[in-house]
Write the structure tokens for this entry.
Amino acid sequence: MTTLDSERISVLLDRLHQDAEAADRTLVEEVVGDMAASGKTMEQLAAELISEERSDMRSVYRRHADHFLSVSPAYGRFLYAMARACRATRIVEFGTSMGVSAIYLAAALRDNGGGKLIGTELEPGKVARARAHIATAGLADLVEIREGDARETLADVGGPVDLLHIDGAWSLYLPILKLVEPRLRPGSVVLAENAFADDYLTFMRNPTNGYLSQPIPVDEGRGNEFAVKVD
Ligand SMILES: C[S@@+](CC[C@H](N)C(=O)[O-])C[C@H]1O[C@@H](n2cnc3c(N)ncnc32)[C@H](O)[C@@H]1O
């Protein structure tokens, strides 16, 4: 049995996914309603959000201070599986929110024999809640959450990175990849949720940049992109 399937963690994750559903329900209904009424595609909505972030990122995410915005159970299990597959012992995550994806990743570290996950989150209230959830999961010894803007908090991750999970501000996917890139090695995995930014996808899918990158259908329409550093 895996750490993910232990009673302590499976009960906690079930509760957190239920809390996320309740906390984010109105937001999801608004987005779906807006798309239906305006006829806008996901790509158009993404372009609008990216432009809004570029003018005032703090305000955008302050509005979501009580939203989980977390990965689905299926994507969480995929994160766990990927971290096990590449035997990750050092993981970096951009965008911790309430710590749901961090629990999946840290559970994989536990089953890989130990290691470290460095996460980062802009909203102080979310940092506190993520730390509490990770402690409840019994995984606090494996996780460091850095409070602040990832452009600063991830400038020094202190060692090689086996797996990078990108799930923060949509406009920062390429800048954060470039920030952490010197710590990636051939075989390191880069996973992105909500990868809609053109600059990120164009860079990652150009093989001359050293990655093999492709969309994957874990959660259709949610911009799941899998990449491996090849050289
Ligand atoms: C989609 S949520 C992350 C969900 C999380 N990975 C999970 O599955 O539980 C994105 C988070 O990134 C945070 N964020 C946005 N911009 C950031 C930045 N520049 N630095 C650090 N965190 C940021 C937001 O506050 C938000 O909580």
In short: The pocket of S-adenosylmethionine is lined by residues 57, 61, 69-71, 95-98, 100-101, 120-123, 126, 149-150, 167-169, 172 (CB under 6 Å). The domain at 1-231 is CATH 3.40.50.150 (Rossmann fold). Residues 51 and 137 are 37 Å apart (CA to CA).
